[in-house]
Amino acid sequence: MLLFLDSTDSAEIATLAETGLVDGVTTNPSLIAKSKRPMRDVLKEICAAVSGPISAEAVASDSPTLIAEGRVLREIAPNIVVKLPLTMEGLKACRALTADGVQTNVTLCFSAVQALMAAKAGATFISPFIGRLDDAGQDGMALIREIRAVYDNYGFTTKILAASIRHVGHVKDSALAGADCATTPPAIFRALYQNALTDAGLAAFNKDWASTGQSIL
Ligand code: G3P
Known about the structure:
This protein is α/β, with parallel strands linked by helices and 217 residues long. It is 52% helix and 17% strand.
């Protein structure tokens, strides 16, 4: 399973990339606004820190402008993936950009039929928003399972990118449901390493080791 960071904090992304376990990064207009920095500068820094796919979102509402924006974004770095909305215009842009060899991430997916349409449009990634479905009282993880079944039924190669992740359990359940990737805020990426029993076990081992008076080096 690929693990992406959902962030525009390029310094934190660079730090976490040192683990070797950051496979890509996703951004969106809200995260760019949160950074209070020019989109192009942020994306250049992220693309320099992480060699995998970096999603940059086009913001127009009509397909010709989405396509034009996608072409501009794509020029920022070779690993840019153009993020497009799951609308009719967004999927028209997806088809056109895919035909030009541009990688795409179709975002704001809330149903399996939307995911089917994105796959038919040639999307490289589909981003179902698990947390926002849960927030609305629905079952976000059920959507991941449904998309997995639909894509497997027809051999679609569009990668399922579990997004809008709220906690570590979402990552575990996405992996169990067969999502290809998950994008998490940095705090959740850090939490993926953590378990209270690991901490307690390590403290006990360290105490016992110290009592031996030995040294490995
Ligand atoms: O990748 C999409 C993600 O950023 C949306 O997350 O927390 O705004 O629902 P959220």
